[in-house]
Amino acid sequence: MSNTPLDKNAKLQALLQSYIAQLPEKLAQIQAGWDSLRHNDVDNHHYDEVYRSVHSLAGSAGTFSFLKLSKCAREAEQQLKQWRSHPNDAVLVSTISHSLQQLQVIASQGPDKPPASNEWPAPIAPKEHNDDGLIYILEDDKHLAEEISQQLQHFKYRTVVCNNLKQATEAVYHQRPSAMVVDVHLQEGPPDGPQFVMQSDLIREGTTPIVYMSHHNDWETRLRAVRARGQAYLTKPIDFTALIEHLDQLTGRQHHDPYRILIVEDTELLAEHYASVLRNAGMQARVLTDPSELLNILPEFKPELILMDLYMPNCSGVEAAQVIRHEPSYDNIPIVYLSTENVLDRQLSAMGRGGDDFLQKPINDHHLVAAVSIRAQRFRALSSLMIRDSLTGLLNHITLKQNLDSVLAQAVRNNRTLSFAMLDIDHFKSINDTYGHPIGDKVIKSLARLLTDRLRKSDMIGRYGGEEFAVVLPDTEPNMALNVINQLREDFSHILYSCNATEFNSTFSAGIAGSPPFTDLDNMVRAADEALYSAKHLGRNRVELHKDETKV
């Protein structure tokens, strides 16, 4: 999908022109409905149609820049509420008739202001990293600089080592990096690391993340780093696990899928406008104009937030929300009502019956993006707590087994291959006993990050328990999985950890089972576990395939 200003403006203009073209018919229907009501006895069905049409106009007109029309429709909506209780009030009838006539007059004047391309909210969804993860290392200790470089390369960062200010200046001039790791105190200074950053025309703009490192841990040194655009600070000896975590975060390297938003709104043009705004902000948006299709869409689309119009024909938003809440698996999806309703008691009543929040129409595009993203982010974070391990961010034991069960059944059904690997960090108890549990946690997190960085997006990675991990590799034969896991094992063995000026490495062992021949969850897990036991028995720091597949 193109995101140029011209494309954005064209979408806005197309939606606006469609809305303008439909306005006369909508207003004529409202007028005809009102004429029928006021000349006959009050008919609940026809009243609901007129009221809903005026309500919809009040909510949609402002979105399409008919601000005066929206205000007038809102007044007419309130008058219709009063008339329902006082149908014989001649003054009220005359007031409503005048308001509806004014709707046509105001609509004929066109929108109050044309939508402009620069009014579209900027994309706020997390971005992928760029520049191939290029990291510059400014460190005059050549041994340490090379060690940092090697550790970063294990996690697929490209590195350029600069041992002096001249090399750093030339490197920055040649190509701007994704981030820089800079020593605060350089032997050749002045300038030192922070001064170099502030004097560099290409870096001082603040677009390149800076990680400072130093032997000093005092307030003044840290404050200098902050004032020189430092976004992270590490004390020597360098904790490489922490450095990788900082760089992953600062470069946006960790992948985030777009938020999935379901829009349930019977006014199709308004729904498409909301969807276009959210898509432009980097989200996935689906439009549903018929709430009766909800139970078909929910399991397929798996929304992280539902925007629900409060007043719809045949089924109100509150009723639709209650139907959704009947299914326990959908109980935690945020439902945000959209309506012109501005009476707090009615808003609270609606939220008390299946809804979580309330957004009042017309809603500004920037407000819509911010409100939706904040709520979707919170839902994703809470959902992650339920299905992911808190230390590593990987799938937890239960979720990993559920996913394995599902993809294994699918692979068997479609006659596809699949491999399942179980990994266990070698001598992990000794690591905890020697260096302490916080260091042991860092070893666990570094393996988790290595697996996440190196494996495919389609692969599933979980923390099976303690120092044990599990990996599901769809469409992968066991021998191919063996090569992949072996390379990971080799790379993991080169990662350095430090504790009290002592450095050490860690290794893991792994066992792999495949489908075919294994066709059910229990047998596949048992086979991979047996292969892992064999790898441990044969000396550790190795990967074994399950050998006894013929007995399945």
Notes on the structure:
The chain has 552 residues and is an alpha/beta fold. The chain is built from 19 helices and 17 strands. Strand 8, helix 12 (317-325) and strand 9 (335-339) form a beta-alpha-beta unit. The model is unreliable at 125-130 (pLDDT under 50).
For this entry, give a set of tags:
single chain, 552 residues, alpha/beta, Four Helix Bundle (Hemerythrin (Met), subunit A), Rossmann fold, 4 domains, five-stranded parallel beta sheet, 19 helices, 17 strands, 50% helix, globular
CATH architecture of the largest domain: 2-Layer Sandwich
Mean of the pLDDT scores? Answer: 85
Computed CA radius of gyration, to the nearest angstrom: 31 Å
Strand order of the largest sheet: 2-1-3-4-5
Helicity level, as a percent range?
40-55%
Ends apart, CA distance between termini = 49 Å
- Poorly predicted spans: 125-130
Sheet with the most strands, sense and barrel status = 5 strands, parallel
CATH fold-type name of the largest domain: Alpha-Beta Plaits
What structural class do you assign from the helix and strand content? alpha/beta
Overall 3D form: globular
The overall strand count is: 17
Total DSSP helices: 19
> How many structural domains are formed by the residues?
4
**What name goes with the CATH superfamily of the largest domain?**
Reverse transcriptase/Diguanylate cyclase domain
Strand content: 15-25%
CATH top-level class of the largest domain: Alpha Beta
